[in-house]
Every structure is written in C-alpha cells, then in structure tokens.
C-alpha cells in the first residue's frame, strides 16, 4: 500500500525523494527491518497471549533428554511468522504482481491448514491433529492453484538463454534499449549442467505435433508433488528448538538471491540464466519472510519459549516450494533444502525398513535410533543446541553450493 502512495507522490505530485520506492532493494530492506521488528517486539505479546490461553504443547513420551520440560510451552507461534511477513508485504510490495499474490495465498492457505491441525491437537485433545488425508488434500489443492496459475496466467513468462533475444544493447543510462521477447514456457533449470534448461513439455514430445498444449499434464502434478514434499519436510524438521526456523531462513535467503538475479535483466544476461520478468518483486516477500523467521528465532532458540507448530512449519514448507517453482529452481530443492530431504528420507527409510524386516524376520528392525534424523542424534547423547548449530552449518554450506550453481555448470 505504501508503494502505491509513494508512487503517487513521485509521479503525480513530483515530491523529491519519493522515487526511491521504485527500487526493489530499498523496499526489500524496509520489509526486512519492519518484519524483524514486528516479530521480535510484538512476538512477545503473542507468546504471552498464547501462554494465558494455555495454548501449550502436548509432549509425547519418546525417551528424549529434556523432553518433559517442554510440556506446556506455547505453540501456534507460526502466527508470528505469518503476520510479521504479510504486514510488511502489504505495505511495501506491488500487490498486483502475480507472484506476490501467489505467495500471499500460499501463506494463508498453508497457515490455515496448520492452524486447524494445531487447534485439533490443543483444544480437541487429539494428539494426531488433522487427519493426514485432509492435510494432503489441502496441499494438493494449493498445488493445483499454484500450478494452474503459473501455467495459464498471461503474466507468468520467461526468456530462456537459448532464445533469440540474448543480445542486448545497454545505453549509457544503464537502460535496456532492446526488450526481450517474453513467452509462456514450462522450462526450468537443471543445476550443474551447461545449457541447463529443461522443458517439461518435452516429456510429451512422443505424442506428436502440438504436444506443447498438453504440458500442464506434466507441470501441474510436478508442482503438487513438490509442494507436498517440501511442506512435509519442513514439518518433520520442526522437532527441536530453532531447527526449522534457522535452516529455513538460510534456504529462503539463498532463494532471495535467485529471485533478484532472475528478475533483473542485466544480471540474468550476465550470468546467462533464465530471465523471469516481474519475478524480482518476490525479493520483497522473501526479505519480509527472512526477517520474520529470524525474529521468531529470538523466542524459538533453545530453550524455546514458543513453538511454531504446524501453523508455522507447513507455511514455511509451502512458501519455500512455491518460491523455488516460481523462480524455476525447483530441481535445486534437494540440494538447497537438503536438511528437509534427509529428515524426510530418514522417516521413509526407517518405516520402510521396519516393515520389511518385520515381514521377513518377524521382528521389526531400525536403521536409526529414532526418526526423524535429529532425534537419532538426540538418542546418541548430543545436546539439541549442538545438533541445531551443526544442522545450520550444513544448511549454510548447501545454500552456498546452490548459489554457486549460477556460474558452476
């Protein structure tokens, strides 16, 4: 909203200095600062409110050190992340931008699913929360919306590096004098490979002429799968103090670099990567999101005074998935979100191996002492602060390696 107000001041009233709001970097900085202040200052009020309402975590007995001390700790703290993100976005972002609209919808959609799940656990005294099938329906529904909008909306276009518009003339005023040809495309980026663009439509090339018209049959299911997988991965990662919020902030910050360069015609041309018009606006959302996550860590770091609950973890996973898909970096998720991946895999492997050995030997056996993976290290005697810090270090290394893929091919 403030963006449009200052745009009026600049273009209509010609007030000096108001033109600074046209710059994404300036608005992103404001969004980050505002979000950080909201989540740290007003986050305390939210925690106090949750505590007064006795919205506390019910802890299952898993035999983990320090587990019983966490009982009664306020949960649903994901509300802090949601509000501290959306308020700065409403103030500083271009709200007519289709990518911003999608991210707002994702935040509210996944936040609602998580809120319902937490509500059932706390007020209905049902430790299972929302039934898994309903969670999946919610994730699939969001995937259908996001996939359909990205595929059919006329404002979602790309300029691939293999196109006919690779040569640009830059004037002395640093403005592009020859605009690229924008086109609808289901192309995405394959990391570590030269000429690293892959079009989902090519999967249907065997069907003959006009196969491009049916690319949505591949693209939308891929979007659904990614959103479901990443949101569940974030949910599983949220098991010890500060783990999900910290690793997510690192991954989202890396995605912010991708969105900024992919949405900037000069940087994308220099790096020889896919130029995605209007995607740079997502940098404002990302700045606000990172600020809210860091501010939330003020209360969620060990010993946590609030947990994010599914309200926060499902929202985080959904937002990360949509960001990666929108900026055409979804194939980089296994690397960028490697923590989520191994947490997911540890559960899948543990359950699968247990069922297999029980069927074959009559007794279930385990690969890990406990799944997800962070609980395995707790069982080995590591303090959760050490586990979280080391997971953060791994997340930083994965983020740096992901960013390096911009030039390493």
Gyration radius (Cα, Å) is 22 Å
Q: What is the typical, i.e. mean, pLDDT?
A: 87
The computed structural class is mainly alpha
Q: β content, as a range? A: under 5%
Would you identify the regions where 5 or more consecutive residues have pLDDT less than 50?
161-179
What's the shape?
A: globular
Number of strands: 2
State the helicity in percent bands. Answer: 55-70%
Strand order of the largest sheet: 1-2
Topology as a string of helices (H) and strands (E) = HHHHHEEHHHHHHHHH
Structure description:
It is a single chain. The protein is mainly alpha-helical. 59% of the residues lie in helices and 1% in strands. It has 14 helices and two strands; from the N terminus they run H-H-H-H-H-E-E-H-H-H-H-H-H-H-H-H. It has a two-stranded antiparallel sheet with strand order 1-2. A hairpin with a 7-residue loop joins strand 1 and strand 2. Helix 2 runs antiparallel to helix 3 and helix 6 runs antiparallel to helix 10. The protein starts with a helix and ends in a 5-residue tail after the last helix.
Could you outline the blueprint of secondary structure elements for this entry?
Elements: H1 2-11, H2 24-52, H3 78-92, H4 98-123, H5 132-152, E1 187-189, E2 197-199, H6 216-237, H7 243-262, H8 265-271, H9 282-300, H10 309-326, H11 333-336, H12 338-361, H13 373-379, H14 384-404
Antiparallel strand pairs: 1-2
